[in-house]
Design a protein that fits this description.
Layout (H helix, E strand, L loop, with lengths): L1 E5 L3 H14 L4 E6 L2 H10 L4 E5 L1 E2 L2 E2 H8 L5 E6 L3 H10 L3 E3 L4 H14 L4 H12 L7 E5 L4 E5 L3 E7 L2 E6 L4 E4 L3 H8 L4 E5 L2 E4 L3 E5 L5 E4 L4 E3 L5 H10 L1
Parallel strand pairs: 1-2, 1-3, 3-6, 6-7
Antiparallel strand pairs: 4-5, 8-9, 10-11, 10-14, 11-12, 13-14, 15-16, 16-17
């Protein structure tokens, strides 16, 4: 694998280079740059398999660089300090990132994922840019990894999510289903500002698709797609309050 490192801190590049040499000997570093302009020029002459890209640099951000180069036909692993907004955007777009200082174990994990999944789709980076352009605006789309593909979905079309141990099954208003290899808790955090509510340990629902609440059999919600979603005893007071406020 051919790699390029772009980071404005020389010591950060040196450390990452040494880590790659030690932990990933099959990665060949074919170029380095210390900023957005220098990095854009480098990428016009060399096309890597993988780019390690710092978020904040002296002459702009890693996202400025992506805007300059346009189409992306290589994998990117972003490197960032603790930037809560950027990290949330990465999670919506299902894009890999590493926190500084880079942990060697996390570096190896990211590279294993790259080898297993291949190159990220351009659509994911478009989604990432959407997430980052307006910090006040809620994300409208979400990237979902299934075994077969990466699907970019409209959040408003999700009726409910159901936990299956370490997997989550998404149910959509058009009857589609997508199973992804992430826990329900991951999505609860991402979707809580979009009208989603955790009504049970195994169920997260979009409140706009609630048709009615039935008090029978311990209590359950009837969704507009006809599905029945149980309400846990512990969650029942919160659910009743939520229904009153709809």
């Amino acid at each position: 694998m051919k790699a390029i490192l772009i980071d404005d801190i020389e010591q950060a590049r040196i450390t990452l280079r040494k880590d790659l040499e030690y932990y990933a000997p099959d990665v060949e570093i074919v170029g380095e740059a210390s900023g957005v302009v220098e990095g854009a020029k480098l990428l016009k002459t060399i096309k890597p398999d993988i780019l390690f890209l710092d978020i904040q640099m002296q002459d702009g951000s890693g996202f400025d660089l992506l805007d300059i180069i346009g189409e992306i036909d290589f994998k990117i692993i972003f490197i960032t300090a603790s930037d809560a907004h950027a990290i949330k955007a990465f999670r919506y777009a299902a894009i890999d990132y590493l926190l500084k200082p880079v942990d060697p174990d996390e570096l190896q994990t990211a590279l294993k994922k790259f080898k297993a999944s291949g190159i990220n789709e351009n659509e994911k980076y478009k989604l990432l840019n959407e997430s980052l352009k307006d910090k006040q605006k809620h994300n409208e789309r979400l990237a979902l990894h299934s075994q077969e593909k990466i699907s970019i979905v409209e959040i408003k079309d999700i009726v409910r999510c159901e936990s299956d141990i370490n997997y989550t099954q998404f149910h959509f208003s058009d009857k589609r289903k997508i199973m992804v290899t992430r826990t329900l808790k991951d999505f609860e955090e991402l979707l809580q500002n979009h009208g989603f509510f955790r009504v049970h340990q195994s169920h997260l629902i979009n409140t706009k698709y609630i048709r009615e609440y039935s008090k029978q059999e311990g209590g359950h919600l009837v969704m507009t797609d006809g599905s029945l979603v149980p309400v846990s005893t512990r969650k029942k007071p919160e659910v009743m309050k939520m229904l009153e406020e709809l």
